[in-house]
Fold this sequence. Notes:
- It contains two helices and 14 strands.
- It is an all-beta fold.
- Strands 1, 2, 3, 4, 5, 6, 7, 8, 9, 10, 11, 12, 13 and 14 form a 14-stranded antiparallel sheet that branches.
- The two termini are 31 Å apart.
Amino acid sequence: MRILKWGAWAGVMGAAWAATVPASAAGEGPDGTAAFERPAYKLLRYQEDWSGLAGRDTSQTGDPFDPIKYVPLSDDGEVWASFGGHARVRIENWTHFNFAAVDEDNDTFTLYRMTLHGDLHVGKDLRVFAEGLTAQSTERELQGGRRTIDVDSLELMQAFVDYRLPLCDEVSVTLRGGRQALLFGNQRLVSPLPWTNTFREWDGFSGIVQFNGWSATAFYTQFAPVQKYDFNDPDAQTEFFGLYATGKLPLNGHSADLYWLGLDRDDPVTFNGTTGNEERHTFGARLWGKLGQTAFDYETEAAYQLGEVGDGDVSAY
């Protein structure tokens, strides 16, 4: 089976352009403060911090999209908004789909995806983030036609409210509620699946604790499966919850993830001939870092999973 993919994407709000603008070109801030250090564009766009543009003349910072990355909505700058998005086009050519040897299993089709988001900040502690998505595909004549990983016509991809509680100089708690994309670690177990044309979404609540270079996220969510031409309603039968912590180790250049992930599905599923409701708990750790002063780095991850499917026990590692 031969699969060829050609893709092109453009950061509608300046991702491609910003990569060519050095931080020193971002201009000094009010009262001669240091030049703005432009944040990297993230897969999860709410992770970007554009507050460094406060008080600066965004028409002189070197990026034509900066005027919409920081939009003051109050005289004191305490209320401000940021806007952005991306667009992607990908062409896929499949030959002998599923290893079939007939011409009917050859096809070429085009995938389109666009997102737009708005990020409202009220002071330092209250935030509202919303992101919409449309994902489309030309006619796909292979088995399955247009799949749920190809098409999601007009969708609210993320919409949540954050409230931050600063406990002390080094510790804060952020409470989050609403629709959100989850991404932990190296995306082996928890990912919004950005390599598909659509995204994976969850509705629920998260609590993020940040302390001494560590971040720990406790969450309870319900899966919102893609409905290609309708709104993606949450599935109360599929619950995903757990605790994920990540941070730097005392050894310089080394970091770790520690996690517990739980999945509970009340709809019967079948694995290896056993059918029934599914409950799984995964405990794991990931270590990564640099090998001394060399140009090499390392990463290792291990996990153990237990639970039940119907009358059968789950034990995997």
